[in-house]
Amino acid sequence: MPALSSPTSKVLVTGPNGYIGLWVVKTLLDRGHTVRAAVRSETRAKDLKTLFSSAGNRLEFAIVEDMLKEGAFDEAVKGVDAIQHLASPIVGKAQTNEEYIRSAVDGTLEIFKSALKNGSTVKRIVTTSSTVAVWSVYDQEVKTFTELDWNEQDVAWVKDETKSFDHIAAYSASKTLAERAAWDFYNTHKQEVKWDIAFVLPSMVYGPSVHSYASPAELTGTQKTWWDGVVGEGKTKETLSQGANWVDVRDVAEAQVRALEREDAGNERFLVVAESYVWQEWLDLSNSALASLSPGSATRFSQGFSDIKNQVPTTFDTSKVKRILGITYRTKEETTKDVLAQAVKLGWI
């Protein structure tokens, strides 16, 4: 199956206003491609026009007010060479297991159904999944996970009526079930279509933003998580000892785009994970970076505790993303410096 190769290809992007979505749009435009952004309103389109004003007619829009509606993307997929599907529920937004799962599964299947119906020019669909589709955050087993693994634990949790509602478990199950539904749909219809599929599964995503926020109070999602983890009050040895796995948002966007461009990326899952961390590490790096970026700044971060060690038990085998997509990950030092440099420029610190 041919991958996206023309430097002037047209790519439909869902979720283009999101944290990762903005970087995917930027990366595609920087490559010379045309982006058709699927947005919910004209206001959302205006925001993107402002951010990418230099793109001119290489940035176009499809208004999709409700991506769960049957046929929502029927018009949006017409004439595009590829699809980047990033739109997804956000942790904490839905209030029931059913809301999380319906939003993720139906939103993904509507893209696939529209591509089956009207996507005669589509060559590949790349969908953003998550490491929680292979692993449960509640699983503290010392193990290295691969693309062959699936998160059965949280799927079982949401199906068990005796279990209480849990945002993290529901979100994780929704990502797992959405990806499985997509694979099932593709395998059922692959003889009818000219396109193949790929999934990008990032861990916690940190890094600078394409959007210039007026203040840290406007941050959401993992951007807020990182800022609060470094700058927020009330740090204890317990909280600074907590950690997970992470990857820079720009590396995720690069993986998303390369998954369109590389021939052998078709019909693959890609774990996109740089390394593990504990919050003390980010704090140490932030203190060091701030001293060089803004030596006269009155802002000072907590020093934390010198005896905290990184004991995160979970690791991921990322050999496939390096072998097929050729991704080289940014380090914690690079990401910390870039986030704080942006904060200094915006006058936050």
End-to-end distance: 49 Å
Tell me the major beta sheet: 7 strands, parallel
CATH homologous superfamily label: NAD(P)-binding Rossmann-like Domain
Structural class assignment: alpha/beta
CATH architecture: 3-Layer(aba) Sandwich
Strand order of the largest sheet: 3-2-1-4-5-7-10
| Low-confidence regions | none
CATH topology: Rossmann fold
Shape: globular
The total of helices stands at 11
Per DSSP E runs of 2 or more residues, the count of β-strands stands at 12
Number of domains: 1
User: What radius of gyration results from the CA coordinates?
Assistant: 20 Å
Q: What's the SSE pattern?
A: EHEHEEHEEHHEEHHEHEEHEHH
Task: Tell me, rounded to a whole number, the average pLDDT.
Answer: 94
Can you give the helix content as a percent range? 40-55%
What is the CATH domain class?
A: Alpha Beta
Description:
Pfam families: Epimerase. Residues 11-268 form the NAD-dependent epimerase/dehydratase domain. Keywords: Oxidoreductase. One of its GO terms (molecular function) is oxidoreductase activity, acting on the CH-OH group of donors, NAD or NADP as acceptor. The protein has a single domain (10-280, 309-345), classed as NAD(P)-binding Rossmann-like Domain (Rossmann fold), CATH 3.40.50. Helix content is 40%, strand content 16%. The protein has helices spanning 19-31, 42-51, 97-118, 152-159, 167-189, 221-231, 237-241, 249-261, 279-293, 319-324, 332-345, and strands at 10-14, 34-39, 59-63, 82-85, 124-128, 143-145, 196-202, 204-206, 243-248, 268-272, 275-278, 314-316. Strands 3-2-1-4-5-7-10 form a seven-stranded parallel sheet, with helices on both faces. Helix 2 links the parallel strand 2 and strand 3.
